[in-house]
Every structure is written in C-alpha cells, then in structure tokens.
Amino acid sequence: MAQIASKSAGVSSAPHAEQLFKSYPVQHVEPAAIMRWLRQGWADMKANPSASLAYGIMFAIVGILMSIVSAANPAFFVAASTGFLLVGPFLALGLYGLSHQIEQGQAPRFWSSLRGIRENAISLGLYAVVLGMMMVFWVRLSAVITGIFFNQMSVDMAGYAGLWNALITMEQGWMFILAFFGVGLLFALFAFMTGVVTAQMLLERKVDIVTAATTSVRAVFKSPLTMLLWALTITVVIGLGIATFDLGLIIAMPLIAHASWHAYRDMVQEK
C-alpha cells in the first residue's frame, strides 16, 4: 500500500502540503555569471539540437503568424511582441525540461521534456492564466494608449511606414513613445521580477505559485545589477530574433531558455 501511495504522490498534479509557502534560500550572483549561463545554454542546445530547435521552430512560426496577422496594425504588432516576452517563461517550459534531463544525466528527448508539466499541473496552470491575463491586459491597454494619441484607424491603415512617419512628425509622437514604452516597461519589470525563476521552480519542485514568485522577487533583489543585465540580455537576444523576420527565434528562444535554467540553478538553493 505504501508503494502505491508513493507512486500516486509521484504523479500528483498539486503541490505537496510541505512544499506550500516554503522559503528557499537565494544566493548572490555576479554579472560575469551571465556569460557562463549563455555558454551552458549553448552546450544544452548542442546536446540534442533537434529537440531544442523543434521548440525554436515553433516559436518562430508563432512569431511569423503574429507578424502576418498584424501586418496592417503595427501598433498591435509592437504590443503583441512585447507581450510575447511576458509569457516567454511559461512557453519555455519544455526547454527547461530538456536542460533538467541533461542535468540528471539523461538523454534529452522532446516528449519527455514535457513530463514535468503533469507533475505540477495545477500551479503551472495558474501561472499560465496569470501570464495570459497580463498579456491580454497589456495588449488592450496599449490599444487605449495608441487611441489616446492617434486616430487608431488612420494609423492602422497607414501600416509601418505611416506609423513611423506619425511618430517622428506629429507633435504627440514622442509623448506616445514615452507613454507606450514607459507603461510597457512597468509590465515587463513586474513580469521579470516575479518570473525570473518561477517557471523553473514550478517545473522541478512541487511548490505553489506564491512560493515560486516570491522566491523570484527575492532572487532579483539579491543580485539587482546582475538581474538588470540579464533582463537586458534577454531583451536584446529575443529582439534580434524578432528583427530577423522571426527566423532568429529558432536559435534565440532555446538559447535563452536553456541559459535561464542555469541562472535558476545558480540563484536558488534547496532548503
């Protein structure tokens, strides 16, 4: 009976009671660690490039479809692209799973990398809902900001060239840039602080979303400069992936996701 109970607990989708609101120690990391994370992330990609690149291709397809859908609405594309960064940690769960397999000495496999999601499905599901709501709210808010500064329809119909011309020639162009990216920065800052290690913790340990998010916030405050530089690194790498007609995401997303796993490993210790 004990063995049956143990097996049942192993596939439970809810956090164990002893894991609820548990405090995990976080440690300081120096800025030099960022390059090590990227090297380790690259090594994980090379361990099974087909699995990592399969995820990367899916990200690129989503990016390309998003570009096509928003071709006539550049403001929406910018908002959706920045929103993509908000939900990125959750979308990278499979890549975290690959890094975890490599760490355990297992052969990284695409389908096996998704197995950890089932083991903490409730908390991961809640996290997905929270990130999804944040993205939807940001996209809607960005539309409101655009509507305040411009005639929404005229900007949409003008396309990218028209939007760029409006930004640099109209009196309210610079005010729009400050408002749009200022509010977007606040969203990104909140998402990063509460999510830099959250998805990784939820995947590996049966913790609740509150424990994971508060651990993430403490990790950011423990190494503020390193986390600022890490956030900039993520933005630049993913931004370059989007700027290359989304094809660069095939490499950029797996690299950042694998590196993020090693960042988590350096910052969060087992109690």
TrEMBL record:
Signal peptide: none
Pfam families named in the record: DUF2189
UniProt keyword list: Membrane, Transmembrane, Transmembrane helix
Segments crossing the lipid bilayer: 53-72, 78-99, 120-153, 173-197, 228-257
Top-level taxon: Bacteria
Protein name: DUF2189 domain-containing protein
Lineage: Bacteria, Pseudomonadati, Pseudomonadota, Gammaproteobacteria, Thiotrichales
